[in-house]
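lol ok so funny story. i was supposed to be doing the assay writeup but got distracted and ended up predicting the structure for this chain instead. priorities right. anyway since i did it might as well share w the group, maybe its usefull for someone
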Amino acid sequence: MSIPEEQHDNPDVQRLINWFFEHYEDPVHSLPYDSGEGGYQWIYGPPHDAEEELSAAFPDEDATMIEQAVSVIQGYGVEWVGIAEKQEAGRDWLQGRELFDAAARRNLGISGDDFLARYDAGEIRNPDRPEVMRVLMLRPFAGR
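and the output, tada:
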């Protein structure tokens, strides 16, 4: 979510609002939603609360200023995703893909994507071989 236009005439309150939107975003931008499972699936950790996060980040800030900032922020939503947590999860996913690809290359001499395509098409002969199993056990890291 981009930082909303100026929402408060007090520059100190606006500073808190800007900081919050630089570090947190609405879950609609980054989380899967499943109404059958109760709504957003908090895959990056639990939801964040604006008042808790601002109070923790600015412990010496006047409580009234934090309350005013929270009032503006809650006009956009009440549960938030940490942008850093999302970025870290993306790095973890990428590392998992690299691990899977390296295992496929090391054990079978083909890329991870090539292995998945061949395996899913039933083209891997003797899939119970140890070298195939070493790659297969890492399949969850492939992201599919």
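The chain has six helices and four strands. The mean pLDDT is 86.
back to the writeup now i swear
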